[in-house]
Structures are given as structure tokens and as C-alpha cells.
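TICKET: design request
STATUS: open
ATTACHED STRUCTURE:
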């Protein structure tokens, strides 16, 4: 799932607290200038209990698609990439506000078959039709106010280990950005998908007793034998399998059967209504921020930037997650511009490496504190803010945010955004 649908502009007004005086020097992130479906087989149990219970109404639309109605070989993806937020004037300390020039790759290591992860695109809305969504409708959705990214995927229900599994056929190099951060960073997983192996959710791997590296027949319009390439949280309710576009074509998955929409700065419920109006009454459109989808199959683990901000704030009593979300938006647009700045700052929360050595956190308990990993960087930012008194609120919060970037315009922007988040998600 995914980072919050963040307000793209700060609310009117300045923070209540005045600029603090006598600020002592401390280690800090140091601000920097940037440069510029197939039908199911007869006589089979439709889905294992846990997988069946996770299917929302949306996925029922995909599950009843007939193979006979599919057209193989035609897949389209439409992405609108307008990730540059508007700039504002410099503050009293002379530093310009963070810009959103394209960042360097988040992960330097590349499997050779799949492009490195460059940004995260949090899906806010998932929609499906009983057949292919037309290019005209996709283009119309992409032009909706505040919609930044749209991707259309092929999908359908297939048989795996005698059970029905809902699958999407995707381009691994681009689709990885739409998955939860912990999954998106697994280059080996996406390289396996690029090699025409299949990927499943952890619950599907467990319930279907799948083993990585083993070959399994997948029943669609054809019955190819595909090798399991691994598992990871997909963040999409009811979708438990990803295959390559080549495999999807071979199995007869329905082209453009579903859409993922990213729309920062607007209520997901409003986007749901607008998308449903375009697609029509026969479509199914869900708000991926609904609690029932946020918690599905995650075992309580954060699966989006919104989850990570909320979870990290609990480590600093008195610190609101909205402050972390505001800083995450200003610093990297929630991971979209996480590359190295001209001053050498890195990651979704833009730490200087020297500061990271002091405040870095192994948030996902994988044995290392990775400045590029949002599971580590966001709790690291909470730790840094807390050390500077952010949990005490008021003047101390103002001063803590000021230490993150020595500029009063920056503090005012962060606190205004935090208030906007609080109003949106109350």
C-alpha cells in the first residue's frame, strides 16, 4: 500500500510558535541545494480459505472473466509522471526550499534484467471492469485533477495448486514502484519476475505450500509451467500473484482489466467517486486507504508510507505522525526523489551520511540501518526529532523541526502541512 495522499500545498497561515532564538549547533540532516481471467477449472475448490476471505467485491469482477473473451498479446500501461512539486521562495537563512529534481536510483544494485527502483508510487485507488478498460477512459482518469500516476494492468483468475488465485500481469521494472516499500526494494524478486517466474503474496505461498525455485503448472487459457520466483507483500487486496506480461499473454489474462491510481493532495474517496463516474456503474472501485484493505494479510506490518509515519511516531511520545509525513513530503515527496542531493544527503528523509551514523535505525530488523530504506529512514527521522525535543510540542517542536533544516520557512511549511494532514486524516 502505500504513502499518504498528501496535500500538495501548505495550508494558509504561519505556525503559532515564533522563530526560536539562540539555537545551539547540533548534528542534523543539513539542508542542501538540489539540481536542477481466465475461468477456473471445473471441479476445483475456488480458493483456500484465507485467500477467499481476502477477496473484496472488486476482485469478484476479475474472477468471473471468461477466457474466451480475452485477446492475447495486447497490454497497455499509461503513466503520467508529474512528480515536480511547486517551488517556493527561499527563507531567512538563505536556503532555497527542497526541489524535486529526479533522484538517483534508490538501489544501486541492479539484477540486469529489471530497472532499479527510482521512486515509490503509492496507489490510492484500485478499479476494475468486467472487460478491458478502454484507452479513452484511462486517459480521462489520468487527466482528473490531482491525479499524478495511473497504470493499467492485465489480470484474471488462474488455477495454482488446484486453487483459484487472482493474478496481475505486469512490467516488473515499472510496477515495483506501486508495491509496498519493503517489496519494491527486493531487486531479486523483480528480476525473477522479469525472467518469467511468478511472484506471490506470503499468505498464498504458505497456504498453497509453494517453494521458491520449483516449477508449477498454472491453469489459464493455456497451462504453462512457471517457476516460483519468490514472495512479497503486494499491498493489493485480493491480488495474490504477479506474472510477467509474456506469461499473462500466454495464459489469456484480460488486458487493461484493472487500474491503479495515485492522486496526492485529494481525498481517496473523492477519487473513487470520480473514477466510478468515468468507468460506469458496472465497475468496482475501492479506496485502498480503507482500514479493511490496509490490514489485509500484512500481519500488522506497515505496508505504506502512511503506515510507516504512524508507526515511527509511536517511538517518540508526543510526536504526531503528521509531522513526519510533512517532512517526508517536503524532503523527497514520500520517496519519489530519494537520490543524492548536491550536498550529499540521501534517502526518503534526506539524511547526511554522518548524521545517519548517529541516528540511523534498523526499523525492519534486517540487520542493517539503510539510509535508503523507508522502513529505517522514517523511524530514524523520528529518533532525530525526538532527540531535539519534538515530543514536547509547542516551541520545542518548532525548534526540533528547525534543527532538521535551519530555515524558518521550512519549519512553517512543515507545520502547515502537518496541520493539513491532521485535518484530512482526522
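STATUS: resolved
RESOLUTION: sequence designed for all positions
ATTACHED SEQUENCE:
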Amino acid at each position: 500500500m502505500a504513502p499518504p495522499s498528501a496535500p500538495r500545498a501548505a495550508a494558509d497561515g504561519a505556525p503559532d510558535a515564533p522563530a526560536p532564538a539562540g539555537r545551539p549547533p547540533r548534528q542534523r540532516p543539513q539542508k542542501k541545494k538540489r539540481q536542477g481471467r481466465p475461468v477456473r477449472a471445473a471441479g476445483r475448490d475456488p480458493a483456500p480459505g484465507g485467500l477467499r476471505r481476502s477477496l473484496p467485491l472488486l476482485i469478484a469482477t476479475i474472477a468471473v472473466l471468461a477466457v474466451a473473451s480475452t485477446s492475447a498479446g495486447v497490454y497497455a500501461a499509461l503513466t503520467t509522471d508529474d512528480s515536480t512539486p511547486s517551488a517556493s521562495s527561499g527563507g531567512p537563512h538563505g536556503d532555497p526550499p527542497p526541489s524535486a529534481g529526479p533522484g538517483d536510483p534508490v538501489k544501486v544494485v541492479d539484477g540486469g534484467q529489471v530497472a532499479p527502483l527510482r521512486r515509490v508510487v503509492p496507489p490510492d485507488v484500485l478499479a476494475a471492469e468486467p472487460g478491458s478498460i478502454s484507452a479513452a477512459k484511462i486517459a480521462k482518469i489520468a487527466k482528473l485533477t490531482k491525479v499524478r500516476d495511473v497504470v493499467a494492468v492485465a489480470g484474471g483468475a488462474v488455477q495454482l495448486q488446484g486453487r483459484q488465485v487472482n493474478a496481475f500481469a505486469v512490467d516488473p521494472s515499472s510496477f515495483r514502484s506501486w508495491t509496498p516499500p519493503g517489496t519494491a526494494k527486493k531487486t531479486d524478486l523483480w528480476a525473477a519476475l522479469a525472467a518469467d517466474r511468478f511472484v506471490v503474496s506470503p499468505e498464498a505461498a504458505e497456504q498453497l505450500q509453494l517453494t521458491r525455485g520449483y516449477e508449477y503448472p498454472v491453469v489459464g487459457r493455456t497451462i504453462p509451467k512457471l517457476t516460483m520466483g519468490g514472495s512479497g507483500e503486494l499491498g493489493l487486496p485480493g491480488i495474490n500473484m504477479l506474472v510477467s506480461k509474456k506469461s499473462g499473454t500466454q495464459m489469456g489474462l484480460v488486458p487493461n482489466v484493472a487500474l491503479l491510481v495515485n492522486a496526492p493532495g485529494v481525498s481517496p474517496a473523492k477519487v473513487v467517486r470520480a473514477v466510478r463516474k468515468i468507468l460506469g456503474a458496472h465497475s468496482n472501485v475501492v479506496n485502498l486507504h480503507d482500514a479493511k484493505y490496509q490490514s489485509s494479510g500484512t500481519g500488522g506490518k506497515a505496508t505504506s508510507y502512511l503506515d510507516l509515519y504512524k508507526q515511527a511516531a509511536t517511538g517518540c511520545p508526543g510526536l504526531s505522525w503528521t509531522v513526519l509525513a510533512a517532512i517526508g513530503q517536503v524532503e523527497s515527496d514520500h520517496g519519489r526523489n530519494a537520490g543524492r542531493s548536491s550536498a550529499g544527503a540521501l534517502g526518503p528523509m534526506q539524511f547526511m551520511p554522518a548524521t545517519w551514523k548517529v541516528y540511523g535505525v534498523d526499523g525492519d530488523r534486517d540487520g542493517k540501518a539503510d539510509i535508503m530504506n523507508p522502513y529505517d529512514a522514517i523511524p530514524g527521522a523520528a529518533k532525530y526529532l525526538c532527540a531535539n525535543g519534538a515530543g514536547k510540542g509547542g516551541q520545542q517542536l518548532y525548534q526540533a523541526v528547525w534543527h532538521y533544516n535551519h530555515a524558518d520557512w521550512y519549519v512553517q511549511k512543515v507545520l502547515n502541512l502537518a496541520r493539513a494532514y491532521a485535518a484530512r486524516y482526522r
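CLOSING REMARK: The domain at 305-424 is CATH 1.10.530.10 (Lysozyme). The beta strands are 125-128, 149-160, 163-170, 198-200, 215-219, 225-231, 241-244, 254-262, 284-287.
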